[in-house]
Write a structure and sequence with these properties.
A hairpin with a 5-residue loop joins β11 and β12. The strands form four sheets. A six-stranded mixed beta sheet has the order 6-7-8-3-9-10, sandwiched between helices. It is globular, with a radius of gyration of 25 Å. The chain contains ten helices and 20 strands. By secondary structure, it is of the alpha+beta class. It folds into two domains: 178 residues, P-loop containing nucleotide triphosphate hydrolases (Rossmann fold), CATH 3.40.50; 126 residues, RNA polymerase II/Efflux pump adaptor protein, barrel-sandwich hybrid domain (OB fold (Dihydrolipoamide Acetyltransferase, E2P), Beta Barrel), CATH 2.40.50. It is 22% helix and 31% strand.
């Protein structure tokens, strides 16, 4: 089954379009995963994939909802591409089943999954064909009449802003333009589900950043459900409505980008997404006001206070996660003794809008703090070998037990 995407207007890429609120983003209230009445468009039920003795995907159950831009994120070898290939039909699960719109597609061949299209990391464009012919290739293979092919191709190329390049060959295009041709070819078939396997991996950083917003715009305009595989945390945080962080074939956490970053559930997720400082300690008290008091493993008598998570008990070993931007770094000692660390600046990295400070603490830890460069002064007020104090509010720390 295929449906025609609802395209509102043309792909002009104007500033007003870029500034508009994404309707398929959690910030706009889009959160079908929170509605028990909503049925997922994709469901993995206990899916496992083995290659000999190696378990690439281990008993994964996951729901993805219509109009989501869903990201499978993790390092090489975590199983994310294998999971995507099983959804596309290029691999068959060793155990479990995959449902799309309630229909079991586990045993269907790729060509029988007419509502699913996949865009590969290698764009696989035909070098002897023009852009127009490349975009219409799949439609010609399906035997669609020529007049309908032309309409579909023109619509797809307008969406990715390639109309003026229709008669060029792939070698006459930039990497970013080739990527858009591959995307147009996939969109032209108007799939219900679009699968993208590291689609921006061949682009340089600037083009990659631009292409991320192009993908978001196109996903919004077509209403298609996108599932993207990436190892790039920033890319996943930018484009996705939800992210599944994978590790050794299992799901570590499935949440929105904001929840993944601000409230990671495990040390693995905290360390994999962005920069983080993790300090080991033990629970010394639970005041009953929704906070927990932690003494660091160094045993120097300091107290760290943070929001308490469920199941904590006095004496339990925990880890306190604090993002670098949550620290307040100062040359002056704070009046409070709660959530304060003293140290010496080892390294300073100036990145224009912000400066990175690597601080060696009295307890022997090395932590990172960020500070916005709000003035135009080239000289930094905090420099190498300075003694500094780091302070953070109680709600900035996340207590991790796993």
């Amino acid at each position: 089954m295929t449906i025609s995407p609802a395209i509102n207007g043309t792909a002009s890429g104007t500033a007003s379009q870029d500034r508009r609120l994404r309707t398929a983003a959690p910030q706009s209230g889009f959160a079908p995963w929170k509605d028990p009445a909503k049925k997922p468009i994709i469901r993995f039920e206990g899916v496992t994939k083995r290659f000999g003795d190696f378990v690439a995907v281990n008993n994964i159950t996951l729901d993805i909802y219509e109009r989501e831009f869903f990201a499978l994120l993790g390092p090489s070898g975590c199983g994310k591409t294998t999971l995507l290939r099983m959804l596309a039909g290029f691999e068959r699960p060793s155990e479990g089943r995959i449902l799309v719109e309630g229909k079991d597609i586990t045993d269907l061949a790729p060509y029988e999954r007419s509502n699913i299209n996949m865009m590969f990391q290698s764009y696989a464009l035909f070098p002897h064909m023009t852009v127009e012919r490349n975009v219409g290739f799949g439609l010609r293979q399906e035997g669609m009449p020529n007049d309908q092919i032309k309409l579909r191709v023109d619509e797809a190329m307008a969406l990715v802003e390639l109309g003026k390049f229709s008669h060029r060959k792939p070698h006459q295009l930039s990497g970013g333009q080739q990527q858009r041709v591959a995307l147009a070819r996939a969109i032209a078939k108007k799939p219900r589900l679009m699968l993208l396997d590291e689609p921006l991996g061949a682009l340089d950083k600037k083009l990659r950043n631009q292409a991320q917003f192009e993908l978001m715009r196109i996903q919004e305009q077509t209403g298609t459900t996108f599932v993207i595989v990436t190892h790039d945390q920033e890319e996943a945080m930018t484009v996705a409505s939800r992210i599944a962080v994978m590790n050794q074939g299992t799901l570590e956490q499935v949440s929105t980008p904001g929840e993944i970053y601000e409230t990671p559930q495990t040390r693995y997720v905290a360390q994999f997404i962005g920069d983080v400082n993790i300090m080991e300690g033990k629970v010394v008290s639970l005041p009953g006001d929704g906070t927990v008091d932690i003494t660091p493993a160094s045993g120097d008598g300091r107290i760290f206070k943070a929001g308490a998570c469920q199941g904590l008990v006095v004496g339990q070993q925990v880890w306190l996660s604090v993002r670098p931007e949550k620290f307040r770094i100062s040359l002056e000692q704070p009046q409070s003794t709660i959530n304060v660390v003293k140290g010496r600046v080892d390294d300073v990295g100036y990145l224009g809008s912000i400066s990175h400070y690597h601080v060696h603490t009295e307890a022997g830890n090395r932590v990172t703090a960020l500070r916005a460069n709000s003035s135009q002064s080239v000289e930094r007020s905090i420099s190498w070998d300075d003694t500094v104090w780091l302070e953070w509010p109680a709600d900035a720390g996340v207590v991790l037990t796993a």
